[in-house]
Structures are given as C-alpha cells and as structure tokens.
User: Which sequence fits this backbone?
C-alpha cells in the first residue's frame, strides 16, 4: 500500500469503494491479464522508440552535411552549363541562383 492509500480516512476509503467497479473474480483476472499485456506492449514499444530517435538523429546529421556541402557549393559555384537558363535576357544559374548580365556577341 502506498502513502496516499494508507493516509485515507475511513470515509475517503468508502468514497473510493462506491466508485470502484465490484467485478467478479473472473472479470478481475481477465482485467489483470489485459493489464499485464498492456505493460508488455508498452515495453515492446520502448526499443522501437529508441531506434526512431537514433534514426531521427542520423537523419538530422545527414541533413546538416547536405546543408553544409550545398552552402559551400553555392559559395564556390562554377555555374555548370547544364544548370544555366536564360531568363529575361539574363543568364541565371539554377544552383546558386545568381543572375548574369551577358552581352550578346554581334559578330556570329
Ligand atoms: Zn552558380
């Protein structure tokens, strides 16, 4: 019996008894079996949640690597031809998003 239960007065004890379902022994056994199963399922969930946390952490680490690499590449972009597009008479690099004003060669 824990401290809260042991500190109940007789009247308080009666109040709890009035609310408690007075189940048969087989209903009580059945409920207790379900309760044990519930605790077992919760135990089985724990390693899965640990694994999820590990995976989320691994994912965040990879996302940080992607961000860092991409930022370095944007900073030192070589503007590869396959990533260049013409837009409103300018050349735009789709990777770094820089816009270039290029004069057309007239003597083609
Ligand atoms: Zn670029």
Assistant:
């Amino acid at each position: 019996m824990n401290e809260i239960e042991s500190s109940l007065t007789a009247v308080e004890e009666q109040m709890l008894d009035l609310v408690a379902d007075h189940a048969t022994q087989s209903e009580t056994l059945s409920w207790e079996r379900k309760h044990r199963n519930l605790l077992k399922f919760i135990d089985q969930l724990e390693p899965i949640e640990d694994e999820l946390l590990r995976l989320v952490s691994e994912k965040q680490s990879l996302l940080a690597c992607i961000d860092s690499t991409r930022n370095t590449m944007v900073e030192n972009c070589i503007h590869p031809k396959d990533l260049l597009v013409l837009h409103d008479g300018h050349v735009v690099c789709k990777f770094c998003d820089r816009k270039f004003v290029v004069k057309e060669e007239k003597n083609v």
Observations:
- The chain has two domains: 3-76, 78-108.
- The radius of gyration is 34 Å.
- Residues 77, 79, 93, 95-96, 98 surround zinc ion (CB under 6 Å).
- The mean pLDDT is 91.
